Amino acid sequence: MKVLIVFAHPEKKSLQHSLLKVAVDALEKNGHEVKVSDLYDMKWKIAVDEDDFLNHEKGTRLQPIRAAASAYEEGKLAKDITDEQKRVKWADLIIFQFPLWWYSMPAIMKGWMDRVLNKKFAFSKSGETTTGPLAGKKALMIVTAGGSAEDFSETGFLGDISHILYPIQNGIFKFLGFDALEPIIGYGADSRKP
């Protein structure tokens, strides 16, 4: 299997970096090909803007979804975006690995999704989940959270983790036609001493 890991954590001594190494080693040991997009190492640009679309006339109204579709079809997306899109096309499984910050992924990972998973590359219209361009690929989250499993339970004070991750699992993965695998969650990440 070809596996792309989209990774977002700024600290090299973090639990997330240790988990990344374990994941890569285990996957390669089992015969899989692995590529890693370490967004902080790459200094990934977060915000969508007119520089992403090389066919966009500067100073005119920017409609990001339409601009992305047009630039993709014309081969006029910024190189960092097309490089990542090649990796997504290559992969059978995409692992999104990140810490849970403010009930979501870090902004750098959301920026990767905003810029890479654009119209025409990742979807053409809503409702295509079984026939869209990325249909059949698998997606998996490896998430660390500071609270305990009890904190993130149905009765926990932080709320049910499945509800927190629902927008990613369903609003992104399933919308794009990914086979959304059950997330792997590491609880109590902040309680460990460095």
From TrEMBL:
Signal peptide boundaries: none
Recorded hits in Gene3D superfamilies, A to Z, give:
3.40.50.360
Q: Does the keyword Transport apply?
A: no
Q: Name one GO molecular function term.
A: NAD(P)H dehydrogenase (quinone) activity
* Alphabetical keyword list: Oxidoreductase
* Entry annotated with the keyword Oxidoreductase: yes
Q: Which domain of life is it from?
A: Eukaryota
Membrane-spanning regions, if any?
none
Q: Name one GO cellular component term.
A: cytosol
* InterPro entries according to UniProt: Flavodoxin_fold (IPR003680), Flavoprotein-like_sf (IPR029039), NAD(P)H_dehydrogenase_qn (IPR051545)
Boundaries of every Flavodoxin-like fold domain copy: 1-191
Q: Please give the Pfam families that the UniProt record associates with this protein.
A: Flavodoxin_2
Q: Which family does it belong to?
A: Belongs to the NAD(P)H dehydrogenase (quinone) family.
Q: By what name is this protein known?
A: Flavodoxin-like fold domain-containing protein
